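Entry for the shared binder. Reason: the reviewer on the internal report wants the predicted structure included alongside the sequence.
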Amino acid sequence: MNLVCELPMGISENEAKLFLAIKLYEINKISLGKAAKLAGYSKSAFIEVLGQYKIPIFNYSAEELREEIITQLSKTDN
């Protein structure tokens, strides 16, 4: 599928792809790998870009994070 749109002055096609990829990743519509590919970046480079925009790469709710910590701590006790 192709999308055609007129970009505002000062926004390049590459910037538009990057911003679209960031937003789609941020709202959990696409994976990290797909977002990186859409933006034209490697996964590691895309992760760095996400950091620059203060977008977390892990999206845990407080409850999910608590459960993950408990699970990991129980593994280290064995």
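Summary line for the report: The helical segments are 13-26, 32-39, 43-52, 62-77.
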